[in-house]
Amino acid sequence: MKYLIVYDVADNKRRRKLFKLLLGYGLNVELSVFETVLDKKSLKALTSQIRQIINSKEDVVYIFPYFKEPLRNGVYKGKNYGDIFI
């Protein structure tokens, strides 16, 4: 299944460590945003590793599943998309 991983990590050392970890799992598409394809076992392993890196009182990591159908009613803007309304 596809996942979008978004994070906000306060400490530079933890942020770099998380970034390097996520590079092994997916594609860095924007600052602090990764697209990944993970099975249940890989997702469990990744979340376990993330817990070891972040400080849960200061940092946040969101893991959003993609759906089988493309997202509808979304607005995509920016250098990679131009102005695309779905």
UniProtKB/TrEMBL annotation:
GO molecular function, one term: RNA endonuclease activity
Pfam families, alphabetized: CRISPR_Cas2 (PF09827)
The protein's Enzyme Commission number: 3.1.-.-
UniProt: Mg(2+) binding residues: 8
Keywords, sorted A to Z: Antiviral defense, Endonuclease, Hydrolase, Magnesium, Metal-binding, Nuclease
InterPro entries in UniProt: CRISPR_associated_Cas2, Virulence_VapD/CRISPR_Cas2
GO biological process, one term: maintenance of CRISPR repeat elements
Subunit structure: Homodimer, forms a heterotetramer with a Cas1 homodimer.
Family classification: Belongs to the CRISPR-associated endoribonuclease Cas2 protein family.
Protein name, as recorded: CRISPR-associated endoribonuclease Cas2
Gene that encodes it: cas2
